[in-house]
Amino acid sequence: MLEVADVLRRYGGEYLATVDGRMPLDHRRAFEDILRCRTPAMGGHVFACTHCGHERYAYHSCRNRSCPKCHGHDAADWLEQRRKELLPVPYFHVVFTLPPQLRGVVYRFQEPLYAILMKAAAEALIKVAADPHYVGGLIGVMTVLHTWTRTLTYHPHVHCLVPAGGVSADREWRPARRDYLVPVKALSRVFRGIFRDLVRRQMPELRLPAAAWKAEWVVYCKPSVQGVEAVLKYLGRYVHRIAIANSRLLSMDDGKVTFRYQECGQTEWKTLTLAATEFIRRFLQHVLPSGVHKVRYYGLWAPSNRRLLRQVQMLLTIDAPRAAIQESPTPPQKRSAPLSSTLEGMPCPRCEKGTLVCIARLARRGRGPP
Question: Residue 222 above 60 pLDDT?
Fold first, then answer.
């Protein structure tokens, strides 16, 4: 199967010549790590069959969060942790997008403005939902940052998962309507105002284009009719990975890369062919700066409200949606053990009679993973 690493390996030198040493450090680190991932440069283990002696090499992953091959186990672990925090209620999927006039500025100041983008989206949701006309309580908001379209162009936006209800000031559960959370036009204007205020407060020297404040800021909000599990899996695919999976790459010939994609809301696959250097540029522009968190939790899901969240979970589990929430101790949370990728004990792929056992470790060459 064709991989992003194959494209970097064949055309990476040509791309590096175009940037002329102006490659950001995080881009270079991702570039190098993806090339090394699951190769002898990363080190690994040697396994041998107990029956026929067949040897199999297992090289380590680079663990870079932009690598398309890594983090499958991390994504599964993240999903399992999120399932423990879910409430037995319907959910809404809300998407906040920035107008085109701001994308260039956001790309130049990614670390502070990504944080402001996620915070503004969550605060807008919490503020509008607190109105008694809609929910009348504190909602939970999980935000996931995306920076791409399906053709890998730069398009920063935030996906939010929101339970259909919240906790009122008198500590009661207030359910939202099943098919309506908040008015999106009002939500978009509140979002725009909060974003502007946060930028002025945290980055007073930054001047944003005046046209951005006259444009309509698009917000999408619909109930997750496919179920919360489908939305979680959709978000989980990109929590530990970047904009494109290796499975979407189709060919790499004559200095061009062809991959498949789907238009939003459609099931038919289309293809797009780009110059290899343009493909690499589009891929690397979605590598986040070090220290930027792609997922954040607010409101009822904020770390400071974990005790309240557990109380709401217990309350809704016993099917008493209007009962007052009583104080109760928070049960201790156990950390899940890291998932192992070892081949130890697996059946031999050659003879299918013996099992694989580790007989040697391979040393890592060069710089280690981040």
Answer: yes
